[in-house]
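Notebook entry, structure prediction.
Reason for the run: the old model in the group folder had no record of what sequence produced it. Starting over properly, with the input documented here first.
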Amino acid sequence: METPRFHSGQAIARSATSRHTTIRIETDHPTEFIDLTERVQAAVAASGVRAGLVNIQTLHTTTAIVVNEHEPLLLADMAAMLERLAPQDAVYRHDNVSLRTTNCVLGERPNGHSHCRALLLAMSACLNVAGGRVQLGRWQRVFLVELDGPRTREVTVLILGDVAE
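New structure, fully documented this time:
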């Protein structure tokens, strides 16, 4: 078995760094796919990281981060799939505030379905950075998936890697 060889081209002085930023998003619908790709690419470019990793993480239990295709019919299919798997009108014990003893908020809307949907999806995505850009395939985009909107949401972006000096 041949050992892979990695070539970096010209020798460049590099140093490791980390950068963090938060993206704030106002969502408009109960279930929504918000394309974050350009904002994540901009954060990576601003960081100066040439090679490394970017981690995109939601700060909410009723949202998700996914990488998929930005095609309207596919996004509608994915929203319909989530509705079939965790219907909004099903009975969820989480929604019965007379049973709950923790994490209760006065006036909280019923969102057991949103928590169950989030369980099916990821809360973060870690992607490669090379040449100062997030490495995505031809159709891949980074999405925040809103599962309990409309709301104000926050996504953190942590970029780790080498910067050219």
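Summary: Residues 125 and 152 are 20 Å apart (CA to CA).
The old model has been moved to the deprecated folder.
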